[in-house]
């Protein structure tokens, strides 16, 4: 696993910055890159910090639930970061969230399933708004979650409408397999993207999470650019009528959000 070099880390410390906060953020970056957990010793060695200092910083972060200590003694990112992430939106996305929230609530109440709004975040996808399921078997969706661009209904809707050069770059890069249904062949994904553009929606048959399907549709802004995707994840089913019902509901919601975006007065 690649971690920034000491030189890269030290460069970020130059300028009018607070060293202890810089060190704390360095720790969080390292922990982020090691989902299985990082020990005090590893952090101390990499950052060239006294173990006592590392311990005190981690204790402070743990008290605020920013990191968690596992039974093995290693540290992982904590749940407090989820609430931070749920409220992180840029100026454009804040309008999207404000407009989408009521539409997502109605969508989830109508279908009994959770629903979400996702946007492109660099070479990934970020969930920026959710409505929870009102049904007994609805899935849980977290705002702030980051997802790959090549796997999943909402992700591929956003990928389908990206610039051609960006699509080619993504498809020529790493395409991790998450389930036995994940599309990892660039040619297959390319055909899927063309189909999405023709149909105006996408269906995920368990490509990112085994046993979980999803339907998604694009949201357009005033210039008709695709700025987000509305989607519903749901437990795997072979009932085509139900899938079509959910797809129609997602399409209607995406159209309603788009209409409000296009007609809103700045």
Automatic annotation (TrEMBL):
GO terms for biological process: negative regulation of DNA-templated transcription. Pfam families: HTH_IclR, IclR_C. The keyword Transcription regulation applies. InterPro entries: GAF-like_dom_sf (IPR029016), HTH_MetabolicPath_Reg (IPR050707), Tscrpt_reg_IclR_C (IPR014757), Tscrpt_reg_IclR_N (IPR005471), WH-like_DNA-bd_sf (IPR036388), WH_DNA-bd_sf (IPR036390). The keyword Cell inner membrane does not apply. It comes from the Bacteria. Residues 80-263 form the IclR-ED domain. Keywords: DNA-binding, Transcription, Transcription regulation. Gene3D superfamilies: 3.30.450.40, Winged helix-like DNA-binding domain superfamily/Winged helix DNA-binding domain. GO terms for molecular function: DNA binding; DNA-binding transcription factor activity. Residues 18-79 form the HTH iclR-type domain. This is IclR family transcriptional regulator. It comes from Bosea caraganae.
